[in-house]
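Explain the record.
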Amino acid sequence: MDVGLKRELERKVRAGERLTREDGIALYESDDLAWLGALAHEVRTARHGDVAYFHGAEAGGGLAFGVGGWRERAADVDAMLRLREEWDGREQAAVPVGDRSLSGLEVLKTYAVARLLLDNVPHLKVFRETYGDRTAQLALQHGADEIEGPAGDEVVELVQDAGFRPVQHDGAYTAVREYDGPDPARRDEPQAMRL
C-alpha cells in the first residue's frame, strides 16, 4: 500500500467516515501490520480508553462471523460489511471466528480490519480458547476490547499484562468489578513467558 492511500485511510478513520469494501480489502492487503494495528488501536482506545472487558462467567454472546484469513480477504470484508449493515444493537459484541489454522498475522489483521469497518459495533471480542492467550492479548492491541474465556485471576493478569485495565461486566456490559491497570514495574522488566 502506498503512503498516499495510507494517509487517505487514516483521514477517513479519524474523520469518522464509513469505510468502503475497497478500503477494507486495501487494509487486508497492507503489509504494514504495525500501521494497521496502530490505526485500529487508536479507534479502540477512543471508544474504550485503557479498559479491556471480560465477562464473569462463560458468556459466549456476540454475533459471530466467519473469517478465512488472507486467502478469503474479500469474503471476510463482505461478511463484516453485511454485519455492519444488519447490526440492530441487540447484541453488544461481534466475534470474528476462524479456525486454529489461521496464522497470528491473519488473526491480528482480521481484528484490526474488523475494528475499522465495524464502526457501529460497540465491542469486538476475542476467544482465548480459539487463538490462545498470547494472540488474545495481541488482539487487544489490534482492535479487540474484550477477552472471552474462563474468567478469574488469570484473565485479569492477561489483560493487565497486555497493558489494559480489566473490567468485569454483566450481560448488559454494566461494570460489575473494576481492577487496577497494569503494574508499571512489571511492564518495564521482561517477564518470564507462561506456557
